[in-house]
Amino acid sequence: MRGINQQRGLGFFGLLIVLAVGGSLILFGLKVIPLYLESFQVDTALENIASQPDARKLSNHEIRDKFLRHMEINGVRRFTQKNLRDAMKIKRGEDGSLTITVKYQAQRELVGNLSILADWNKEYSI
């Protein structure tokens, strides 16, 4: 057992390991956080559409246009008129209810050939 005078604290290699782990966590956060921010924008767009007083009366085309406009204003470039037809499903119930489902995947490169794939399935009922 070393005495109090011989204990020196964190060595050089220990510092390198701490910096490597910290740098990896920061890199991971910088790549993943934008995916979650984009997901929150999808939630916000669906809530904005649902909060309109005449939301149930909107046509499917109008709903898609409002969604795309919200995405464009907030800088989300993932959705286009073409791919939104596959990603967004709109179901109307006999009681006048409306269910909008947005299902999509977001992929982000981490390092080299290592990527993150996030599956999102957002559903909003009016």
Offer a quick outline of the entry.
The protein is 48% helix and 25% strand. The protein is α+β, with helices and mostly antiparallel strands. The protein has one domain.
Layout: helices, strands, pairs:
Layout: H1 12-51, H2 60-73, H3 81-87, E1 88-92, E2 98-111, E3 114-125
Antiparallel strand pairs: 1-2, 2-3
Which runs of at least 5 residues are low in confidence (pLDDT < 50)? none
Element order, helices and strands? Answer: HHHEEE
The strand count comes to 3
User: Main beta sheet: strand number and arrangement?
Assistant: 3 strands, antiparallel
Helical stretch tally: 3
Oligomer: single chain
Alpha carbon gyration radius: 23 Å
Our measurement of the CA-to-CA distance between the termini, rounded to an integer number of angstroms, reads 69 Å
Domain count, please report it: 1
Instruction: Give the % helix.
Output: 40-55%
Strand order of the largest sheet: 1-2-3
Outline, from the CA principal axes? Answer: elongated
Strand share of the residues?
A: 15-25%
What structural class should be given to the helix and strand makeup?
alpha+beta
Mean pLDDT: 88
